[in-house]
Hints:
The protein has a domain at 12-24 and 31-42. Strands 1-2 form a two-stranded antiparallel ribbon. It is mainly beta and 49 residues long. It has one helix at 8-12, and strands at 14-23, 32-40. The chain starts with 7 loop residues before the first helix and ends in a 9-residue tail after the last strand. The chain has 1 helix and 2 strands; from the N terminus they run αββ.
Amino acid sequence: MTNQSLNNNQLKQPLLTIQNLRVSFGDNAPALKDVSLTLNAGETLALVG
Length: 49
């Protein structure tokens, strides 16, 4: 990872937005259903399951 400084405009805007994510494997029931999230600069997210 690199260490980069962010300006104020970059800090205000989300880096990643996911809405209504649904994931299933084969014919199985969904592992994820209707997951929504916003990841902002400087935040870390771990999805473990």
